[in-house]
């Protein structure tokens, strides 16, 4: 069952938490909602669940308009950030609760709950109370409870944020496994980009209630559609350099460096150039950027350097084979396809740049 | 987060409130207004529920009624007799109980027992204890060479008898509140004082007493308010009379007499109104000063 | 060390002395209730009856219908407690989990009325009850007492501590508001409800003035009212009076011994006097 959002908008007092979102989530897909804190991820999820009703716009489950339908009737499963398990009920009773509300006969409910518990591998904990479980176990119970009534959609709101790093890694694979096993449409909210990129079929990146880009994880990383997307993804963050239009190209401010373009007439006065640190390589062969190394630090296999060009600092992840020293001058370059151009004013990607020859 | 109020949620909210609100309006809110009005009934026909005349006559009348003055005086004496002694004793016991002794729970249970018992029943038990010929109290006093006292028949002793019993009945409640207050005082103060070499008495006067002052204040107000409402004890201890020669006539007893025995609804309501004013004053004192204490803490 | 042990000893001594004084009336009551008339008047007092006169209890029940009083007290106590719990649960839910127009005002008015002593309500309530034709009926004994602002206030505080996400989870799981209240909030608030219920049971069982004025016939008297009337009926037969008093006091003492944890913590937390 596809989920379709049509101009979905949610306004709280004076904040527009969700702003005219239109999109489709395909059947069986796992979509991540990613974005900085306060961008409207949870609100979007609450709208999908029916716990909030939108200010305007529609939500369709398949062909059915569910915009006005109450949460208890939408047939969704939801996993909350703090799991929201019923503290007075045992694990088994927690999982059975949605079935009890649907008046499923007790015996059948018990069987289905146990089945579900096996799926999330907590079959041995059925008699415990939530208070006696670890975070990871609680999360599994929450997932089982969400899935037991065979919902059409599974909604997860930062379900991993309370777990430690190791468990997080484990659990997100677990969630992916369960989701694919059940074949359910799932929406997963997170503010952890790595989580979003690794787990999902598609990522929706939000900012201030607006979807900035929705695409496959790799594509979002490789071809950010705007400056925000470029800067949000990646760690260490992408380098963004402001360049002003000069006669035959663009020049880095207060520096001799310039990128040359032909056919400049249609381009803006100022652009932002984005290059990810790992897309740089050290070269002596006519590099695009030359400057003084001001900082070197080792991160895992790579070496992170900071290089000063005029007023601008560039971060680059380079191969440790280059014997670099602080204070030395170094040349950096990147492949054409890894250099992104954005309009300084609108932040939008400039697609059809015809690149000129390199700076001599 | 709560969703914003809508007409739908308002309907729902009041639906949930309905049962409680219905009862409270009929038996709590309406009677307050009615009682206030009733105290100005000068001429009232109860059987037909018709008011012929309103006025201040009732207020003049009760303050000219020597019985009402007696009732006010007695109630005042009762409060002055019960509250300080009860607070002194219960605080002392609470401090002792707070000493990490083994049987603290057991003692607390015993001291608390009277709280759960019927005032009427224990008053009857006490009237037996106060019996002038065969009573336990006179028997014990006999050990110290004190002649038997006609506790319940001598107007001079009726009030003390009432006070002694009320202290016994209310002690456990105050102890519990004091214990709760004591447990809120951090251990660190005592440790610090011990390190400084303060004696137990010094620790009590310099730490316990000041830090417990909000509790003392709270208990005092509650005790005063409850003291002003004393009735059941009097009724049962003196077998349906306000003590010998009205010596234990209290304000609520006066209300009861005027209302239930003499059918003087206006006068009874006026007396109730006076009682309300007295209690209201103490409630306000508590709200105003009590709040300051809370901040101070 | 010696000094410490000594002071501990003194503390125990003081506490034990006080405890004996507290218990004495109860011991004396039970002891007297089992004595023969001659032992009752014995001087010096007899503490343990030579022969336990259990029939005193029976005699008392024959002189006055204590069985009937007992049943009345139980009916009134149980019904008003159940009633109060129900109205309290519903109202506390509205005040804690629903946002509606006028909520603040209604709540403030209710809180305000808590300052007014019950004695002030006595007369108008009597008039109301008699206008309703309820004088001398169970309605009069029960219905005015099935809602309590204080309990609502207490439970509301407790309900506030239930996280909103739990109500979201319940909605997603298919609960209507009412089902959420019933299946989640109420079980969660069990300790608070037990405390409220117990305080109500004690208050209701021991209530005197109101039952005294709204009942006339013997058939509707509750235990305290019946006991108070009994003092006239029994005359100076103290063994019977003490037997009757024991019948009134004992059920609450037993209840207290079983549930004292809830009762004491409830009193400590709320500071209300029964
Ligand atoms: N109930 C509400 N009333 C008013 N404003 C709200 C409410 N819920 C959310 N907001 C506002 O809407 C915006 C989006 O909130 P939302 O909770 O959807 O953010 P989020 O993306 O989930 O953030 P986080 O990652 O911190 O959870 C925020 O500015 C928030 O302050
Ligand atoms: Mg959120």
From TrEMBL, chain A:
<dbReference type="GO" id="GO:0016887">
    <property type="term" value="F:ATP hydrolysis activity"/>
</dbReference>
<dbReference type="InterPro" id="IPR012340">
    <property type="entry name" value="NA-bd_OB-fold"/>
</dbReference>
<dbReference type="InterPro" id="IPR003593">
    <property type="entry name" value="AAA+_ATPase"/>
</dbReference>
<dbReference type="InterPro" id="IPR027417">
    <property type="entry name" value="P-loop_NTPase"/>
</dbReference>
<dbReference type="InterPro" id="IPR003439">
    <property type="entry name" value="ABC_transporter-like_ATP-bd"/>
</dbReference>
<keyword id="KW-0547">Nucleotide-binding</keyword>
<dbReference type="GO" id="GO:0055052">
    <property type="term" value="C:ATP-binding cassette (ABC) transporter complex, substrate-binding subunit-containing"/>
</dbReference>
<dbReference type="GO" id="GO:0140359">
    <property type="term" value="F:ABC-type transporter activity"/>
</dbReference>
<feature type="domain" description="ABC transporter">
    <location>
        <begin position="3"/>
        <end position="233"/>
    </location>
</feature>
<keyword id="KW-0067">ATP-binding</keyword>
<dbReference type="GO" id="GO:0005524">
    <property type="term" value="F:ATP binding"/>
</dbReference>
<protein>
    <submittedName>
        <fullName>ABC transporter ATP-binding protein</fullName>
    </submittedName>
</protein>
<dbReference type="Pfam" id="PF00005">
    <property type="entry name" value="ABC_tran"/>
</dbReference>
<dbReference type="InterPro" id="IPR013611">
    <property type="entry name" value="Transp-assoc_OB_typ2"/>
</dbReference>
<dbReference type="InterPro" id="IPR017871">
    <property type="entry name" value="ABC_transporter-like_CS"/>
</dbReference>
<keyword id="KW-0813">Transport</keyword>
<dbReference type="InterPro" id="IPR008995">
    <property type="entry name" value="Mo/tungstate-bd_C_term_dom"/>
</dbReference>
<dbReference type="InterPro" id="IPR047641">
    <property type="entry name" value="ABC_transpr_MalK/UgpC-like"/>
</dbReference>
<dbReference type="Pfam" id="PF08402">
    <property type="entry name" value="TOBE_2"/>
</dbReference>
Automatic annotation (TrEMBL), chain B:
<feature type="transmembrane region" description="Helical">
    <location>
        <begin position="77"/>
        <end position="97"/>
    </location>
</feature>
<protein>
    <submittedName>
        <fullName>Sugar ABC transporter permease</fullName>
    </submittedName>
</protein>
<feature type="transmembrane region" description="Helical">
    <location>
        <begin position="203"/>
        <end position="225"/>
    </location>
</feature>
<feature type="transmembrane region" description="Helical">
    <location>
        <begin position="109"/>
        <end position="129"/>
    </location>
</feature>
<feature type="transmembrane region" description="Helical">
    <location>
        <begin position="157"/>
        <end position="182"/>
    </location>
</feature>
<keyword id="KW-1003">Cell membrane</keyword>
<feature type="domain" description="ABC transmembrane type-1">
    <location>
        <begin position="72"/>
        <end position="286"/>
    </location>
</feature>
<keyword id="KW-1133">Transmembrane helix</keyword>
<dbReference type="GO" id="GO:0005886">
    <property type="term" value="C:plasma membrane"/>
</dbReference>
<feature type="transmembrane region" description="Helical">
    <location>
        <begin position="14"/>
        <end position="33"/>
    </location>
</feature>
<dbReference type="GO" id="GO:0055085">
    <property type="term" value="P:transmembrane transport"/>
</dbReference>
<keyword id="KW-0813">Transport</keyword>
<dbReference type="InterPro" id="IPR000515">
    <property type="entry name" value="MetI-like"/>
</dbReference>
<keyword id="KW-0812">Transmembrane</keyword>
<dbReference type="Pfam" id="PF00528">
    <property type="entry name" value="BPD_transp_1"/>
</dbReference>
<comment type="similarity">
    <text>Belongs to the binding-protein-dependent transport system permease family.</text>
</comment>
<keyword id="KW-0472">Membrane</keyword>
<dbReference type="InterPro" id="IPR051393">
    <property type="entry name" value="ABC_transporter_permease"/>
</dbReference>
<dbReference type="InterPro" id="IPR035906">
    <property type="entry name" value="MetI-like_sf"/>
</dbReference>
<feature type="transmembrane region" description="Helical">
    <location>
        <begin position="263"/>
        <end position="289"/>
    </location>
</feature>
